[in-house]
Amino acid sequence: MKQFVLITAALLALGSPVLAAAEIPPLGVSFSQQVVSLDPSGRPYPAVNISPEQMEGIERHDFDLGRGRRLQVVTNLDNPQGRGLDEIARIVRRSYDYLETATGRSLDKGVLIYLIELDSIPLSYTFEASYPADSHWSEVRLALLRRGEQLLGPYGSADLAELIYDTIPHELGHDVLAGIPNLAHDIDGRPSYHTRWFIEGVCEILAKGFARRENSSSLQRFLATRKVGTVLGDPRVRSQLFSWSQENGYEMGLESDLYGASMLMVMAWAEQLGLPALLDRLSQCSDQLCGADLVSLMVATTGMGEEQLFERGYQLGRILREGTYLADRRLQKVGWGG
């Protein structure tokens, strides 16, 4: 069975445009996530529509993330505090602290999580929800749970673990990098700047570094998914990495491999400077930075050619796979501090 995920957020006007200005409700943001699973013959399973606005028992729980930021969890869980919702909030708060320390940069907005419990999770579904546009969420995410499923711990939900230990810190990494105005970002439907290898590499470093601190068993699963021990030994990955774009038509396996390869290459770059110093250096560049500029700067600051950097990244991948990174103090500088 194959599975594809599409997440979108769009501004929608909620209310009639003929109302007087003082009566017009604030714009709303519609968040949707679509998962399409294919049966063995390649046909999609019928999709189930999931909408929290139509569910009974939906509650909103707010948690302070400091400096005016908040986490809001929209959920239909029975006894959410008794099942560990407060601890989830503490983990998200620690992810903020971790990213700010690892990058030397601040995060200013909060996170909205939809945590929805179902009798069974459909193979294909469309989730739709909306929230006020003035909420200023940095990230909006969804996790589906089976009824009564444990949230945390060794028998907890694997999907929830991936969300809080990997996805959220990864996406917060994108928010950090959005604060470097001269770093060009790819946008769907537009020509690529070919900076994706660097941007996703930084975000993967931050996510895996946070998982290392918080949940080592999840970390090993995440690293295995990215095939860190072997991925940079693949000539196809090496040839595609620096031209990796947002719209590429690659199969899911290669796409995942490029995430892992990107992380290792940015590690190879940042292990000498340290990640905060590297990001500061990029911020000080006066011109817009595209992919080729980043590669040239990496070569210049490390004193290594591209092939040497690929080999160093490959060595770092083997270190991570074998677990000996605990003894490699240089990795502390790239966001993997203890």
Task: Tell me about this structure.
This protein has 2 domains: 2-158, no CATH class; 196-334, no CATH class. With 338 residues, it is of the alpha/beta class. The two termini are 38 Å apart. The protein has helices spanning 85-103, 158-177, 196-214, 216-226, 235-241, 252-273, 275-284, 291-302, 306-322; strands at 2-12, 28-38, 48-50, 59-66, 69-75, 110-118, 125-132, 137-146. The protein is 41% helix and 20% strand. The longest helix has 22 residues, at 252-273.
- Main-sheet strand order equals 1-2-7-3
Structural class: alpha/beta
* Mean pLDDT over the residues: 89
What is the makeup of the main sheet?
A: 4 strands, mixed
Tell me, what's the shape?
globular
Helix tally? 9
**Helical amount:** 40-55%
In whole angstroms, the N-to-C terminal distance is 38 Å
- Radius of gyration, whole Å: 21 Å
Uncertain segments are: 9-26
Overall number of strands = 8
> SSE string, helix = H, strand = E?
EEEEEHEEEHHHHHHHH
Strand content: 15-25%
Domain module tally: 2
Explain briefly what this protein structure is.
By secondary structure, the protein is α/β, with parallel strands linked by helices. It has helices spanning 85-103, 158-177, 196-214, 216-226, 235-241, 252-273, 275-284, 291-302, 306-322, and strands at 2-12, 28-38, 48-50, 59-66, 69-75, 110-118, 125-132, 137-146. α2 (158-177) packs across α3 (196-214), α6 packs across α7 and α6 (252-273) packs across α9 (306-322).
